[in-house]
Amino acid sequence: MRRLVFVLLALALAFPALAQTPQRGGHLIVCQPAEPPGLDPTANTAAAIDRVVYSNVFEGLIKVDSEGRFLPGLAERWEVSPDGRVYTFHLRKGVKFHNGEPFDAEVAAWNLRRAMADKTQNPHPEYFRGIAEIQTPDSHTLVLTLKEPDALFIPHMAEGDAVMLPMGAADKAKSHPIGTGPFQFVKWVRGDRVELKRFEGYWDPELPYLDRVTFKFIPDPSAQVAALRAGDIHVIGYIASPESAQELARDKRFKVLNGTTTGEVILSTNNKAKPFDDVRVRRAMAHAIDRKKLIQLAMFGYGTPIGSHWSPSTPYYIDLTGMYPYDPDRAKALLKEAGYPDGFEAVIKLPAPYSYSRRSGEVIADMLAKVGIRLKIEVIEWGQWIDRVFKNKDYQLTVIGHVEPWDIGIYANPNYYFQYDSPRFREAYTKALRARNEEEKARYFGLCQRIIAEDAVNGFLFSAPSLPVMRSEVMGWWRNYPTIALDCTRVWLKR
Predict the structure, then answer these.
(1) Alpha carbon distance 445, 435 (integer Å)
(2) Which of these, 119, 211, 417, 485, could form a disulfide with 54 (CB 3.0-4.6 Å)?
(3) CATH number, domain at 471?
(4) 360 Cβ partners below 8 Å, 6+ apart?
(5) Which one of 149, 173, 197 terminates a domain?
């Protein structure tokens, strides 16, 4: 009897593993709402570009996995000197571009010099201008010496701005991209789709699993869901409405992956507008907002509470959600201490295009009303929001998502629209950028998160969910989106 139980247990453990063995072949159709303005991520910052070509067509020296870890890409390994200034990259051998040209240290050096030049060559030359010297001691070794340590150098080298292009075909990359990735470009039907196929000469012979990938551009959310239900597409890379995700999750034909992104949704606060220039008022608001309930009401349960301006999918994240537990009585006490025993009135300006912002703002207004903060809601068009709120700082409160990864540095700029001016934060952030090892980076980036949480600069609400929705046979899709990419390298179709 014991032997039979053992055999049954072994089979139960073995068969799920066998069922998950990737199957080769198939054509995956991915929907994304926005058509990219071009297909060269080194020429434009549009996220729609990276979502099509990053890691699929183009690769950099370093790549990001679904958990936000930095892994070998075209560099199979690298070392950093003790002073944090010299990076030695050992490049993979035998790597070829889709046009047959070899990738080596000379090509890598050319790409970096091009990126450093100016904004006509790369939208973020500042990512690379910290490089003081580029050396190529042999064809597969690249040595970069920085002017000073830069804790964000590796993250920047893992972004779309740092992918490698062939020296002879860079000028055509906007319309005919040629990279080293697992898929090569086939055609771009403007207004409709981009087609890719497996690159048979990929440096990892085990990948990719799919034969073809098509990115289909469908801007209307209702049309996206209709296309998924009709079987015209396999995946909606980013679903616009959490209510649609909730509805599709109840249908056994589909599955919804509730993961994290680099986006932090915050109650942006003008720190120089009264009464929000008083930290006690800002802390009172933090205690008055029940983030878990907010996520349930505004996001249908999708989202992850945060306690500072840092996503759980980003390295060095620390959980500060316990700093301001939901406590309306404590909120009222802080308001009384600040001189507002009966509360006050204020205006919250919400951007019209974003339903998550409007819904969150309405829920927050209800929560703050319970402690005496009476908000008047103004819904304004996106152009007005950019002009009045972001540029001219003509606001008290707003709700918006900040999606740029590693963007906590905005708190070091007192002229940013929060108008937060903290020498202590600027000192901590400078030390974080100049950190020489992982221990120092974790310590100072953690301190940065803690300082702005203690100062309650903004209402830190939740990490925006990724919410990819797909047919049940799609396997290997990323749950979390720690970088701007729809990486299909390890995706496969279960048949």
Answers:
(1) 9
(2) 485
(3) 3.40.190.10
(4) 265, 267, 294, 298, 299, 399, 461
(5) 173
- pLDDT tier, 10 (very low <50, low <70, confident <90, very high otherwise): very low
Give the CATH number for residue 66.
3.90.76.10
pTM score, two decimals?
A: 0.86
Confidence of residue 313 (pLDDT cuts 50, 70, 90): confident
Task: Please indicate, yes or no, whether residues 292 and 167 belong to a single structural domain of this protein.
Answer: no
Cβ within 8 Å of residue 84, ≥6 positions away: 146, 149, 150, 434, 435, 436, 437
pLDDT at position 449 is: 98
Rounded to the nearest 10 degrees, the angle between the axes of helix 279-288 and helix 355-369 is 100
Domain boundary among 173, 196, 213: 173
Q: Which residues contact 3 (CB under 8 A, 6 or more apart)?
A: none
Task: Say yes or no: 270 and 219 in one domain.
Answer: no
Residue 72, domain member (yes or no): yes
Report the domain count for the chain. Answer: 3
The CA–CA distances, whole Å, from 37 to 41, 45, 188, 470 equal 10, 10, 11, 25
Residues present in the chain in total: 495
> Do 439 and 219 meet the contact criterion of CB atoms below 8 Å apart?
no
pLDDT band for 192, please (50, 70, 90 cuts).
very high
Burial of 281 (0-12, 13-18, 19+ CB in 10 A): buried
- Tell me the pLDDT of the chain averaged across its residues: 93
| CA distance linking residue 314 with residue 405, whole number of Å | 8
Residues 290 and 162 in one domain: no
In a domain, 385, yes or no: yes
Q: What is the largest CA-CA distance in the chain?
A: 77
Do 197 and 98 reside in the same domain of the chain? no
Structural domain harbouring 101: 60-173
Tokens of 416: 């940013």
299 & 207 share domain: no
Say if 9 falls within a structural domain. Answer: no
Beta carbons within 10 angstroms of residue 196's beta carbon: 27
* Neighbouring residues of 188: CB distance < 8 A, sequence distance ≥ 6: 39, 175, 194, 195
- Euclidean distance between CA atoms 158 and 419, whole angstroms: 30
Convert the pLDDT of each residue in 435-469 to its tens digit: 989 999 999 999 999 999 999 999 999 999 999 99
